[in-house]
Amino acid sequence: MLSPIPIQDRASAPLLEASISSGDATRIGRFEAAVVSCEVIADFFTVILAAVFSYAAYYSLGLGKHAQYASREYLFAVLGFAIFFVLMLDRSGAYRRGNSLLHVKETERVLRVSTESFLVVLPVTFLTRFYFLRWLFLIAFLSTPLIVALQKHAIYIVIRFLHSKGYGVRKVMIYGAGYTGRRVFSALVRSPKLGLSPVAFFDDDSARRGTTVFELGYQHRRSAPVLHGPPSTEMLLRHGASHLVIAIPSITQRKFLQAASQAFSAGARVSFVPSHFLSSDAAVDYTNIDGLLLSSLGRPQAPPGYELLKRTLDLVLSAVLLLVTAPLWLLIAILIRRDSPGPALFMQKRVGREGRVFELYKFRTMYVDTPSYNYSPKTADDQRITRVGKYLRRTSLDELPQLLNVIKGEMSLVGPRPEMPFIVERYNERQRQRLQVKPGITGLWQLSADRAYLIHENIAYDIYYINNRRLFLDLAILIHTLVFAMRGI
Fold first, then answer.
1. How many other CB atoms are found less than 10 A from the CB of residue 428?
2. What pairs with residue 175 in β-bridges?
3. What is the structure's pLDDT at 8?
4. How confident is the model at residue 445, as a pLDDT?
5. Contact 81/121 with Cβ under 8 angstroms?
6. Distance between CA 475 and CA 107 in Å, rounded?
7. Within the chain, which residues score under 50 in pLDDT?
8. The pLDDT of residue 489
9. Measuring CA to CA, which residue among 190, 262, 253 is closest to residue 229?
10. How many CA atoms lie within 13 A of 240 on its CB side?
11. Helix (H, G, I), strand (E, B) or coil at 484
12. Buried b (16+ CB within 10 A) or exposed e, 287-310
């Protein structure tokens, strides 16, 4: 979304003394290099730890008494695998600065790299004298991504803590306090690995001067003031900003160049949200033909075989979950009936893929005299919600009956949430993109802080999912949903 203009390109801009000294820039660069080095080392030893854990579990469970590795032989194999695993992570971009996308992208990468690494190792074992133990392989295959993902989360917490203490942080000012600017602000706040801390906004609208922009979501933990006028060298220096983000897609060329010039004069880098006649959601494919770069537009396509694998995953997991949670269904039904009069199940028409209408199943969380078709509650203290309903909604247990919708093929476990017909009727062209795929019980939007707002008003997560849907992304979303629900958020 953000395209950088390197600071070296400011040849024609006058140079003034910047508040970000070269020594500060060097320290930030060293901090970022140290973080990457620590992450590489941590990944390497975490994979070794996962291998040791798998080996111990293999024998503790009594699965491997018939075979045993020599310690030296196993150590060399583990070291080789750990090096290969780290190289695969590096190849997938794990050590590049970027948006963590609610940590889901990080988990998706770990799942994908783990699977790819083990798929490479498996045939190698048949080409060497290294004896292959199937149970050990299975335990390692399941435990390695889990342990690595936990370690990644721990590093994320450490980085946030260090940034809160001022280490490795570059201050950012955003030009544009509208919808795009607010999205940029929230994205930077939620991506500590970037090390970019937004401190203030510039906006040409005098009505916004003196106002405050809060992070999108339930908890307004981060905010930034809005300053009037276009960016100026003086204000960038005063706030110690080393980066300017131009978040006005419709900005004129003259204003853009003026803002960039002011930033370069303050010794700051410039990033911007591209302005183009194409929507930023458009699926663009680039092809290099003999040095000529051609761009093609088209509807986003899932990888070959993805739909079949996704449907198989939906059926298997839904059937398992139905069996495991059957006693819970009975308990919830009893609690709902005792808490308020009316049926335990609630059915409502929703719009699915390609606009097809179906009956969605949920556990009832509101009183029976509540109108069936109205906007959903935004807060837990909504008077329409029953006492039991508050708990069910907070833990997402009210969504359990939608497993029946998944088995019927009307929904998937992962996808954009289905909305009511009266809302879909008001969709604009961009919002109708949500109907390209089968709706889901959970998705990126449910894991975000933006779920405080109406679904169709914050569809960036759904469009990202549609354009990037993969089996490992689905698995990562399911894992994060499980953790999300267990935390009762």
1. 8
2. 202, 246
3. 34
4. 78
5. yes
6. 9
7. 1, 3-21, 99, 218, 276-278, 288-291, 293, 488-489
8. 45
9. 262
10. 12
11. helix
12. eeeeeeeeeeeeebebeeeeeeeb
CA 310 remoteness from chain centre: 19
Rounded Cα distance between 482 and 143, Å, is: 17
DSSP readout, 69-90?
--HHHHHHHHHHHHHHHHHHHH
Put residue 141 in one of left, alpha, beta given phi > 0 → left and psi -120 to 50 → alpha: alpha
Please write the tens of the pLDDT for every residue from 140-174: 999 999 999 999 888 888 888 887 777 888 889 99
DSSP 189-221: HT-GGG-EEEEEEEES-GGGTT-EEE-SSSS--
What digits encode the pLDDT tens for the residues 400-446? 999 999 999 999 999 998 999 988 888 888 788 889 899 999 988 77
Q: Give which of 165, 110, 167 is closest to 141, Cα–Cα.
A: 110
What pLDDT is recorded for position 380?
62
Half-sphere exposure of 63 (CA within 13 A, CB side): 14
Q: Which residue from 317, 287, 336, 296 is spatially nearest to 407, judged by alpha carbons?
A: 317
Question: How are beta strands 440-442 and 357-363 bridged, if at all?
Answer: unpaired
Domain residue limits, the chain:
3-15+169-272, 27-164, 306-486
**pLDDT score of 320:** 95
From 3.90.1150.10, 3.40.50.720, 3.40.50.10490, 3.90.10.10, which CATH number describes the 3-15+169-272 domain? Answer: 3.40.50.720
pTM of the full structure: 0.72
| Separation of alpha carbons 345 and 376, rounded Å | 17
Distance of CA 106 to the CA centre of its chain: 8
DSSP string, 19-46: SS-HHHHHHHHHHHHHHHHHHHHHHHHH
Report CA 308 to chain centroid distance, whole Å: 24
Could you give the CA distance from residue 366 to residue 125 in angstroms, rounded to a whole number?
A: 57
Using a 10 angstrom Cβ sphere, with 0-12 exposed, 13-18 middle and 19 or more buried, the burial of residue 137 is: middle
Q: In which element (H, E) is residue 274 found?
A: none
The radius of gyration of the chain's CA atoms, rounded to the nearest angstrom, is 26
Say how many residues make up the chain: 489
